[in-house]
């Protein structure tokens, strides 16, 4: 499994964390629900620091590279993310991991421990 972290510094954008919430409600949450291979997407924002972004949890590296991106955030914000990182999952734990069936997944366990 892989995690992708995408982040924008909104200081050069006409958008704000508050205005991008409308994008979530009206489009993004539903669009990403149907994205194949994506196990989870969490959006985050900080109004004070003017930061907006998302964390994706993907089934595998092939899904990360080949997945269609329904995001319109770049179009709305006016420029590409200021930071993008793709990482292999080392370990997953917690209540949500149990619900998603991914507890014990990661390189620390040889990719998947069951």
Properties at a glance:
31% strand, alpha+beta, 4-stranded antiparallel beta sheet, 114 residues, elongated, two-stranded antiparallel sheet
Explain what the structure shows:
The model has no long low-confidence stretch (mean pLDDT 84). The protein has helices at 17-33, 61-66, 73-77, 95-100; strands at 2-9, 38-46, 51-58, 83-88, 105-106, 111-112. The protein has 4 helices and 6 strands, in the order βαββααβαββ. The strands form 2 sheets. It has a 4-stranded antiparallel beta sheet with strand order 2-3-1-4. It has a two-stranded antiparallel ribbon with strand order 5-6. The protein is α+β, with helices and mostly antiparallel strands and 114 residues long. β2 (38-46) and β3 (51-58) form a beta hairpin.
What is the topological layout?
Layout: E1 2-9, H1 17-33, E2 38-46, E3 51-58, H2 61-66, H3 73-77, E4 83-88, H4 95-100, E5 105-106, E6 111-112
Antiparallel strand pairs: 1-3, 1-4, 2-3, 5-6
Q: Radius of gyration from the CA trace?
A: 15 Å
Helix and strand element order = EHEEHHEHEE
> Would you report the number of β strands?
6
Low-pLDDT residue spans: none
Strand pairing plus helix content: what structural class?
alpha+beta
Order of strands in the sheet with the most strands?
A: 2-3-1-4
Principal-axis shape equals elongated
* Through-space gap between termini: 15 Å
Taking the sheet with the most strands, its summary is:
4 strands, antiparallel
Helix proportion of residues, in percent?
25-40%
Kindly estimate the percentage of residues that lie in beta strands according to DSSP. 25-35%
Average pLDDT score: 84
Counting DSSP H or I runs of 4 or more residues, the number of helices is: 4
